[in-house]
Amino acid sequence: MRCPFCGYMESKVIDSRPTDENVKIRRRRECLSCKRRFTTYEIVETLPLVVVKKDGSREAFSRTKLLNGLLRACEKRPVSLELLDSAVSKIETALQSSLEREVTSLHIGELAMQELKGIDEVAYVRFASVYRQFGDINTFMDELKNLLNSK
């Protein structure tokens, strides 16, 4: 591992510990040349996941884009970033564990709504209103009725 301070190619691992529900390994390293310490993260390399959008176009799955969508739905709500990051991890794990390398944006949206439903109902309705493109108040009310009936 190249030292970010002096560029020397050799370092030694001082400490290793799992992070993010054992998905990543955090390593503290020390450069053998300048003796400065730095942190690296090791993750399993996964196959790329392609999202098929409503218009038929394709793009690489973006964890950040999904998290940003959930953050917008939870704006001004008492929902922690850690909880949303955990929800995104669950969704990403579900997508990666399926045998499909292409997944529709509709499927990702449904998974996101399932997660939000358990986290915050107001955020769920916000997300659903954008995701399902509610055209009028009746569609909105139908979704609210479904939410109340599912309790």
Task: Provide the descriptors you would attach to this structure in a database record.
151 residues; alpha+beta; 5 helices; 3-stranded antiparallel beta sheet; 6 strands
Q: Please give the largest β-sheet.
A: 3 strands, antiparallel
**What would you report as the Rg, rounded to the nearest angstrom?**
20 Å
Separation, N- and C-terminal Cα atoms: 52 Å
- Number of beta-strand segments: 6
With strands numbered from the N-terminus, the spatial order across the biggest sheet is 1-2-3
Strand % is 15-25%
Mean pLDDT: 88
Detail the poorly predicted runs: none
- Which structural class do the helices and strands define? alpha+beta
Count up the helices: 5
Into which percent range does the helicity of residues fall?
A: 40-55%
Described by its quaternary structure, the protein is single chain
Secondary-structure element string? EEEEEHHEHHH
Shape: elongated
3D architecture notes:
With 151 residues, the chain is α+β, with helices and mostly antiparallel strands. The chain contains 5 helices and 6 strands; from the N terminus they run βββββααβααα. The strands form 2 sheets. It has a 3-stranded antiparallel beta sheet, with no helix packed on it. The chain has a 3-stranded mixed beta sheet with strand order 5-4-6. A hairpin with a 4-residue loop joins β1 and β2. α1 (63-73) crosses α2 (81-97). It starts with 10 loop residues before the first strand and ends with a helix.
